[in-house]
Predict the structure of Xanthine/uracil transporter.
Amino acid sequence: MEMMDNHSDVDPEATKEPLKRGVDINYGIDDSPPWYLSIFMALQHYLTMIGAIVSIPFILTPALCMEDEDPSRGIIISTMIFVTGLVTYIQATWGCRLPIVQGGTISFLVPTLAILNLPQWKCPSKDVIAALDPDAKTELWQVRMRELSGAIAVSALFQVFIGYTGLVGKLLKIITPLTIVPTVSLVGLTLFSHASETASKHWGIAVGTIFLMTLFSQAMTGVNVPTLKYRKGHGLQIGWFPLFKLFPVLLTIVIMWSLCAILTATGVFPEGHPARTDVRIRVLQDASWFRVPYPGQFGLPTVTLAGVLGMLAGVLACTVESISYYPTVSQMCGAPPPPLHAINRGIGTEGLGTVLAGLWGSGNGTNTFGENVGAIGVTKVGSRRVIQWAALIMILQGVLNKFGAAFILIPDPVVGGIFCVMFGMIAAFGLSALQYVDLRSARNLYILGLSIFFPLVLCLWLKDHPDFIQTGNETLDSTLSVLLGTSILVGGCLGCVLDNLIPGTAEERGLVAWSKEMALEVDSDETIESNTFDFPYGMSLLRRWRWTRHIPFLPTYKMKL
């Protein structure tokens, strides 16, 4: 319990100030805490990750035409957790080498829903699905999963390419703040119907969930909880732990889930009510205890042009979002600014992780978890070794199939309340990029308004009129339907084109402040004395080969952007 003493005795007010490199850090990026402390601190990152990842299947599985009580829903959650652990370990050890968690992301849900809205993938009625035999029901959702898996894996090759070839920096010269705002904010705005659909199943529970989330994450962040700790030579002592600051999502889910369980046991919720905790109990009963996820577990992924191009929108959104986290995490850990080779390698590895997620059949990609970035700032523990331990815990939990199935039992109204907060925060995160641009400029306001409003109009109309596009070529029809039906792609492209074509000064467009924030033009000579971003093995060999200085993703890379 020594770990609690490390971060809990720090003045809570100090966490409000920007962190300086090498200052106010309990464990820096290259530090290795004792193994027992590392495991305890890794559990915090694991629990933080669970709160963010568990909501994705609640939108994904119904779109796959999967029944509520299908045990395979638990398999998908376990697969997501397993892949998150695998990719996180690769990223922290060989990728950008920052202590970040790579896991499932909401950004991929928007193109996913656009693809599954195509006529050939729309779900039959519930009565038709109920009449199918078990094998037919399984094939009904697995054929859709194979389509998503192929689209995710192939589209992520673009991220692999721009990362490992060093094209990330060049791409960001045209991806400006007025491109990022509609791209990221539309992720949250587009999914509002899913939030309303799940929350409306019991508004009382949903509003209660929102209230607790607001209370814990905003009003009680400075409240520490007393805990017992043991120190050698001092015996048992009372320590203070920032419970509400670390686990607002998890605490909210546990409390509201428990409340629903009480209302279920006392008969307040009638049989079959969506707020009951036993409405999907068969999923847990039928799930096996152990199951190792493997590539192609739902069949060989299929690849279509429409799917791949649609998923590119999610890939681009995740790329920009992850790059914006790298300098922040590096500063929190007391590390030097991430050199260009580390950024290139981080994006390339994220793309590789999304390829693996597609091949494993998670139905989603990977992205840097903002929640875990926040956990580093709170605990002042930025050790890479802790994240590696957390990755191993995720891999082990991904094999425990019962554990994944248990999260399917969370009542829909609780999930709906979480959606309202989570989607709102994603939209706000996208809008936060407006801090770089001049909002007094009529030019910028025009681009901003059109690039956010028009995609919603177009995409919602196409959703209601899926057969409108008729070119005579089925492949072209599907491709155009997915591209024009993916709001983040339409909004991002519209913002990018308008911002780069309509005349405006660099300051007006926010390019000056944005380039400083991204810190992509870091000369590798500045970080020669630091081996923070070097590979754990083989560096002496790389330094011996002069040609490695020209490879954008190797630590020996010497060229500027």
The chain is about 60% helix and 5% strand.
